[in-house]
Structure formats: C-alpha cells, structure tokens
Amino acid sequence: MINSSVYPVGTFGQPWGEAELAQWRDRQSRLRRYDVDVVPRIDALADRYEKIAYGQLDYAGERYTLFALRDRHFDPALPTALVTGGVHGYETSGVLGALDFLETCAADYAGKINLLVAPCVSPWAYERINRWNYDAIDPNRNFRADGPAREATALIELVGSVQGPFLVHVDLHETTDSDASEFGPALAARDGKAYETDVIPDGFYLVDDSENPQPEFHRSIIAAVEQVTHIAPADAKGEIIGSTVIAHGVIEYPMKKLALCCSITGARYTTTTEVYPDSPRTTPAECVRAQVATVCAALDFALES
C-alpha cells in the first residue's frame, strides 16, 4: 500500500537538503536522559565488569560517551559473544534487556565464554526516542568502517580491538507502531519517495542472516522466548514486514550487504531480535524478559554446539 501523505518536513517527492535536516532536528526534543537512565546502571556493573569508553559523540555541543562492559578476565582461549542494544535508540527493551542480562544472568557464563556488551549504541537517539542519529542517519544501515554514523564506526573499532574470534552476536531490537506512524514516513520524506505502509507484526520475531543461515540456532531461541512472550505470526502473504517467514517467527536479511549491526563480528551465530511492545498481549517488562531470554538461549546453544 502506498501512502502519499506528506511528512511535516520537506516537500513531497524531493530529498532533503540542509534546510530540511535542520527543520527535522528542530522537531526532536530530549525526552529522557542517557546519563540518568543508562550510565548509572553501567557504573554499578563496573565492579564486576571492565567498563570501556569506546567512543565519543559530539552533536551541536551535546556530548555522549559510548560505553561497553566486558569480562574482567577476558580469556583469549575462549570464544567471545557480543550483545548490542539501542542501535536504534527508541527501541527501549534492547537497552534494558542488555543491562538486565548483565545484572541477572551473565555471571552464569563466567569461564565459558567472553562477554562484551554495548547496552546503548545510540544515546542521542535514546534520549529523543528516535530511530536516527543527529544527522538523520540510521546507524543500522551503515555498519561500515567508512560509514557516516559514528555510532556504527565506533562499535566496529571496538570489535576490531578484541583478541580472538567471536562465536555469537545478539543484536536487540524492537518493532513498534511508530515504525509506521513516524519513522517509515520520515525515511520516505528524507529520500524523496512515497511511503509504502508496512503491517506491523504482533509479536516477537528474529532475523537470521541469509548469507550465513543458522536454522537450529534460531529455532532454539524461538522455543525459549515462546515461554516468555508470544511469537509473531506470518501475514496472509506468509511474510513479516515484507520478508518471507522461513521458520516459525524467523525471517532473514543479507546482513553484510545491508550493513547491519550483526555483520560486524564475523560470528558463526548471529541474530537480530524484534519485540513488539505496543501489543495488547504483552508489557514492557515482558519485552525486556524476552530480550534476556534470547541472549541466554543464544549463548546456551552456541556453547552446547
């Protein structure tokens, strides 16, 4: 379905320039605080994990330090797992799920696998409950070493500094009603295109890598998450957000080709989660638990394999 309604920024059918970008920025306001919500929880974990400042953002004088946490006893003989949250800042359960995992479950994996966790990759967007960064760029289409999103390049640099191979990468995301009401229309307006309306799936699903498919891995995660929250069904076309459902609650994308976050480690086992916090069948707390269940199930499967 094509929705030709005009987004409040720009001229329909014309890509944005600097004036439109400035107008879009003027619409963004700080709705929550990274330094209040997220950083204190990272600081509280610093007695158990090494806190790493892996990058700095400076957006019109607003400065953000990018933080990660890793095992203090990082054993290069062990495999390594990366957990990322908040690549899209508005996807709250990704941030909270990464932190909750560290606070409640991560100790169970000590001595089995090295953990590296970046709980909030995009703090400017976290504060504005937005998908894009300050430059109206989606970090999760720009995970390239020469890409335009500092949120992405800083994380790539952090990954490159790690000794030894990665076995697992779990990237924690959400699909929300605002994808259809705000972020999809904004993307179309920015690029001078008509907006094609998506049907928002009701429930949790995963995105596998079509260039490195791991069906059993994803099946095991869905089985674990199904004990926590409901799984999104396929639509009438057998799709979720326009992609063919290849297994219960699983679609796939070419991660490297699309420059998605899960492409940066070269890990054997990678997945991107999508929970749906706007569903009447779930709660924000349940969505966070689903994210934690995903991480634990992913690590358990990888270690047992």
Automatic annotation (TrEMBL):
Belongs to the peptidase M14 family. This is Peptidase. One of its GO terms (biological process) is proteolysis. InterPro entries: Peptidase_M14 (IPR000834). One of its GO terms (molecular function) is metallocarboxypeptidase activity. Residues 30-305 form the Peptidase M14 domain. SUPFAM superfamilies: Zn-dependent exopeptidases. It comes from the Bacteria. Coiled coil: none annotated. Transmembrane segments: none annotated.
